[in-house]
Structure of glucan endo-1,3-beta-D-glucosidase:
Amino acid sequence: MANIIPTLLLLLTLSGLFVGTYALGVGINYGQIANNLPPASHVSVLLKSLNISRVKLYDADPKVLSSFANSNVEFIIGLGNEYLPRMQDPQEAQMWIQQNVQPYLSQTRITCITVGNEILGGQDIQLAPYLYPAMQSMYNALVNLGLHQQVYVTTAHSLQILATSFPPSQGAFREDLIQYIQPILTFHAQTNSPFLINVYPYFAYKNDPNNVPLEYVLFEPNPGAIDPNTNLKYDNMLYAQIDAVYSAIKALNHVNIQVQISETGWPSKGDENEFGATVENAGIYHKNLIQRMQQRQGTPANPTQPIDIYVFALFNENMKPGPTSERNYGLYYPNGTPVYNLGVQGYLPRMHFSASMKNGLSIFNLLLLLIGYLIFG
């Protein structure tokens, strides 16, 4: 009889009924530019099975927010770039909060609103003059509604806002963007909100694979890089890029603003010229990243400040424009199958309950047959 237990556990594991519960230790970006994603109610089960309790959206999808009611999941929601000009009007900002935030707060934990995504240094640079006023308008609306202690306001930037990223101690913002960044930094300091940056070491490797060591960008063993001004050693590019952002902020006379990574990831597939976009590299990057986040590491220049990261992304998104890599950043395929092994196992409910029941019954019947064979055979 003692031999039955290991066999049963093996069968349960293979059947998908025995679900791992190790926490990933990171937040996740839940993008939805696809036509084949599972319903939000099923996604909530998947994230619960992975112990993921922080989710970042690019909108304020009511179906998602409702599906996560009474859960312990904390949400960052997004105000799309196209809304920025309208948010100059205080009434428009307050109406947006009343329609997209206030109705859900009693049951869903919304803690942050990102006003736009990659406005500075991105393709929507023409919206730059609207960014800070929109952030201030949204914050004022939260104050008027008594929600500013519960929900903070920020925006997410790409690393293209930097003119210099190495050595990290010499990190500096682009001169043409300082007029927009300085008031945003003052806003963060006054409201105690974080500075969000989207950081992808993959891009550096893809653009220069002959000179950027793959091990350095994948957190694998490597000689590292020394900052000649501080003598600090960096064993990976992500930490160097984060410290470069801190240096750029400090150069504008701000020292108490926290930097958070709103996006980082690695594609599992790409075009022929997208060097390094493979399943193997994506798995290594995310597995090593998650291990470091679980250790609550800081960067060499900020060792006591644990890095706060949102991985991009939960699912592959088949309708995203651009090169092949853009549609292959997901940790999961839309059917809930992992793209690569991260050492954890999640569970996505089947689309049809009857099919799930059939699967469960077939496993149960198999277990009964096995028990009968082991006991009486």
Summary: The chain is about 35% helix and 15% strand. The CA atoms of residues 74 and 86 lie 27 Å apart. The first strand starts at residue 27 and ends at 29. The mean pLDDT is 88.
